[in-house]
Amino acid sequence: MLSIVDIDRGTPAVKSDKQVTLEIDGRSIRVPEGTSVMRAASQAGINIPKLCATDMLDAFGSCRLCLVEIEGRKGYPASCTTPVTEGMKVSTQTSKLADIRRGVMELYISDHPLDCLTCPANGHCELQDMAGVVGLREVRYGYDGENHVFAKTKEGDVNPHFAPKDESNPYFTFDPSKCIVCSRCVRACDEVQGTFALTIQGRGFESKVSASQDNAFLDSECVSCGACVQACPTATLSENTLIERGQAEHSIVTTCAYCGVGCSFRAEMKGEEIVRMVPNKDGHANHGHSCVKGRFAIGYATHPDRINTPMIRQKISDPWRIVSWDEAIAHVAGEFKRLQAKYGKFSIGGITSSRCTNEETYLVQKLVRAGFGNNNVDTCARVCHSPTGYGLKSTMGESAGTQDFDSIEYTDVVLVIGANPTDAHPVFGSQMKQRLRAGAKLIVIDPRRIDLVRTPHIKADYHLKLRPGTNVAMLNALAHVIVTEGLVDEDFVAARCEQLAFEKWRAFVAQENHSPEAMEAETGVPAAMIRGAARLYATGGNAAIYYGLGVTEHSQGSTAVMGIANLAMATGNIGREGVGVNPLRGQNNVQGSCDMGSFPHEFTGYRHVGDPVVRASFEAAWGVHLHDEPGLRIPNMFEAAIDGSFKGLYIEGEDIAQSDPNTQHVTAALEAMECVVVQDLFLNETAKFAHVFLPGCSFLEKDGTFINAERRISRVRKVMEPKNGYADWEVTQWLANAMGYPMNYQHPSEIMDEIARLTPTFHAVSFEKIDRLGSIQWPCNEEHPEGTPVMHVGEFVRGKGRFMLTEYVPTSEKVNATYPLILTTGRILSQYNVGAQTRRTANVMWHDEDRLEIHPHDAEERGISEDDWVGIESRAGQTVLRARISERMQPGVVYTTFHFPGSGANVITTENSDWATNCPEYKVTAVQVTRVNQPSEWQKRYQAFTQTQQALLDAAETS
Amino acid sequence: MNIERLVAMVNDIGRYFAAEPDEALGVAGIADHLKRFWEPGMRKQIVAHLAAGGEGLEPLAKKGVGRLAEIDGKLHA
Predict the structure, then answer these.
(1) Which tens digit of pLDDT belongs to each residue from A841-880?
(2) Quick one: CA torsion of A222, A226, A228, A233, rounded to 10 degrees?
(3) Which domain of life is it from (chain B) (predicted)?
(4) If both were cysteines, with which of A432, A736, A746, A903 could A850 make a disulfide (CB 3.0 to 4.6 Å apart)?
(5) Separation of alpha carbons A846 and A318, rounded Å
(6) Cβ contact (<8 Å) for B12 and A610?
(7) Domains of chain A
(8) pTM for this structure?
(9) How far apart are CA B7 and CA A877, in angstroms?
C-alpha cells in the first residue's frame, strides 16, 4: 500500500530539455518529452484509472484499465505505455472506455474476495477504488467457478489454485488470495531493490507471485526491504502492523536513524502510535526506497528494555536507585564540579554520537567547551570516519564527500573500496545496482567477495581481492599505472592543483617500488588486474570512488583517504556530476556530528580551536573564555583514565564498551573513573559501568536534524512525546545550567540558528528553509543559498587541490606462527552496529548471532566444520564464536560481524590506530583460530557481569 | 599516560612523514601534527620522554618531537 498522502502519477517522471504540448479531455498540458499520457493527465489533474501502474516503477501495460482514446489512432492504447506527442488529443472518459474498464474490473473482482470491510487495505485499496471509479455494480460470472479465493471448492474439495497466507516474514504477510497478478511487487523487487527475489510463476490462470523457487518469504532471497509491500495495490502484501492496527490517520515526514544514507520516511500515525513507516517518494536521498532496518526495525523504541527514569548509584557494584530528574541532574553537576575541584579542570569530558541530532551534538560540545572549560569532547566518528575528515581536508579542503547520491546516474565507472553498500548502505546500494545494470563498469577492491561482486545482472569487471591492510599499497599501485602510462588528466591538474605538490607526488608514485608488479607480494593481487583496473578508472569516462570503513579503519586510514583523493584529482574526476570521492558514512549522523565541532581540536565547520579569530567569534557568542588547545580524543581519554588523570565522562548515545577496540582496556578505563554518566535508551554495555543513567529518547520523540553522507541536512520530526519526559537536548541544557553555564533554548531550531550564525558553511541554514526545500546539502550560505549538491566545481574548497605523499607502511599487526590469520570485521544488512536497536527487533530472525567466516582451506587445516565453536585469539584477548565455512573469504583471512556484545569481537581487536586520527585498526587483527568446546574466559566473565548488572537494574528502587 | 603507547603513536606519525624527500619538511610536519592534534598533557609527556633519552622513538620521530619541544617551549615561555 502506498503512503496515505502520496499522489501516484502512474509512471516515473522523465527528464528532458524538450517540452511537448498536448490536450487531454480538452485541457492543454505541457510536459517533458517522453512522459506517458497517464502521467501528463495526472499532472493536469485528470486521474486515469489504473492498477498495474505506479510512479515508482516503469510502465508495464498489463491491467488494461488505463486505456484511452487518441484522436487519429486506432484502438485503445494503454496510457501508461504511450508517450505524449506534440499536439496529441486524448480522451480519457468515453462510453466505450467505460464499458471496457467495467468489463476488466468485473473479471478482476470475479476472482477476488469480497471481504472489503474486514480487509487490512480497506480505505486505501486501489482495487476497491477502481471498482468504485468504473461503477462496477455486478459480477455476472459469479464466484463459484475456478478461483484463487477459497480454500475449498463448492463441492468441498481442496481448491488447487488456493494458497494459504505466508506469514513467515516477521514484518509483512503475503495473502495470495487477494493477488491480482499486476506484477508490481515483482517489478519493485527488480527495479527498485534489485534483488530479483520475486517472480510470476506459471501462465494464464496459473500465474502467481512466488518468492525464489516457491519458497516462504523468509526462506527466499528476499531481503525484506518492503518495496513490494509498498507497491502492492491490494492487501496481498501488507505490513503486519497495518493488519494489527488499521489505517493511519496522519503522516509526518522524518529521517531514518540508521545508516548514513539518511532515508526520508513518512511515519504514518494513529495518534501517537506508528502504524507503519513508508519511505518518502519525495525524499532526496532515497526517492521512496528503504531497507529492512529503516522501514521495519523501529520496535526498539517501544521495547520493554527501555529505561525511562533517571538512576544513580555510588559504585557500579551497587543497585541502581531511581531518582527524579532534578536529583539526577544535581547529582551529575555536583560530581563533575567535585572532580574538577579535586583533579583539575581537565579531568572530565564528554562523548557525543552519530546517533544524536546535530542540535544535541552541538550542545554537548558547547557544554564541554564552555561549561566544563576544556576541549575534552569527541564523537564516535573517531572510530569510523575521522580519517575521512583528515584526508579530504588535507587534499581538497573540506572534510566531506564531494557528491550527492544521484550523481551516480552519470557515472560510467564505479570504484568501490572497503565498502559493502548492499549490506551497510542498502538503499544507496540499490541505486548503485540500478546504474550498474544500466551499463556502468564496476571495480571492487575488497578482501572479501561482497555481494556486489556477483549479484543478479551485475558482475564486477575487476575484483581486486587484496590482503587486509594493503589499501595504500593498492592505491599507490593504481596511481603508478596512471602516472607511468600517461593517463593523468594533465589539463585538470595544471588548472586545478598545486603544481609543486603534484610533481612531487608524480615522482613519488612513479618509483618502481610502487608498481603493481612490485606490490603484488604485498597486496596478493595479480599486477595485470591492477593495471586493468587503473586503466578502466582513468579512461572509462566519469569515474566515482565510493569507500567505507574498510578504508578508514586501518593504521594507514588517513593515508588511504588521501590516496583516494589523489587518484580522483590525477584523473580529473572531481567537480562535476558522475565523479568524485564519496565516503559512505556508517551511521545516520556521522557527517553531522563531525560538522558540529565535536572533535576535540575543532569548532563547527572544521576550524581549529587554536585559530584566534574563530575562537573569538565563539567566545563572543558564548560569553566565556575558551581553551585554545586540543582536548583528549576517545582513546586518549581511556589512557588518561587508566593513569588516573581523567575521572568523569558524560556520554550521550554512544556505547564505547561494545563499539571501541580492545574491550578489556575500555572497561578498565571506565572502572577507573569516578563518575560515568550514560544518556541512552537502554542499559547498554557502557551503562553497566556507569554511575548515572539519564534516559534518552528515540529519534521518533524529538525534533532536530541529521546530516547524511551527501552533506544533506534533513529534519527529524517528533511523532510522539518523549517517553522519558525530555528531549535529549533539554537534558544537556539542564545539565549546563546546573553546572553554572546558562543555556536557554526553547526549541532545537534556535540551536540551529546559532550554528548557522557561527559556521560559514551553514550561514543560510534554518529549519524554515529545510522545511521549505525538503533537505539542504551544505555548504549553504550567501554563495550557495539553496545548498551544494556537488563540491569543488571550478575550484577546490582550499583553492588548489593538493596531492599528498602516501608511503605504504605495513601495519605492525603482522601474522606470525602464533597468530597466522588476519581477522577483519564488518556489518550485515539486518543488524546495525552495536545492535542495541536492531537486536531488539524481529531482525534477529535473519541474524541472531555473530559467526566467524573462515575459508574451507583454513577450516580443514584446523579440523573445523560448519557450526563448530571456535576460539579466536589475538594479542589483545580471546573469544569464541560459531564457524561459518565460506568461500567469500580468501585463505588466511577470517571475518566476523560485531552486532552482539557477547560475541566479544572487540575483545580481540587491538589499540593499533590510524597514525593521524587514532581511528582504530578494526580491520586488521592477527589471530589464531582453534576448535573449542566452551566459551572464552572473557565471555564467562562477561556473562556473569551482565547477570549481576541486570540484577542490580531489577533491584532498582525508588528512593 | 602509557608512554609506550605515546611513543608508538609518534612513530606512526613519523613513518607517514618519512616519505617527504625534504627531511626538514618531514620534521616540521610531525611537530605541526602533534601541535594541532595532541592534547598538551600528551605533548608535555612525549617531550619529557625525549629529554630523558627518548627510548623507543625512531630517528625521524625523535627529531619531530624535538621540533615540537621548540614550538611548545616558545609558546609557553
Answers:
(1) 999 999 999 999 999 999 999 999 999 999 999 999 999 9
(2) 150
(3) Bacteria
(4) A903
(5) 37
(6) no
(7) 19-134 (3.10.20.740), 311-384+590-777 (3.40.50.740), 386-583 (3.40.228.10), 821-949 (2.40.40.20)
(8) 0.96
(9) 23
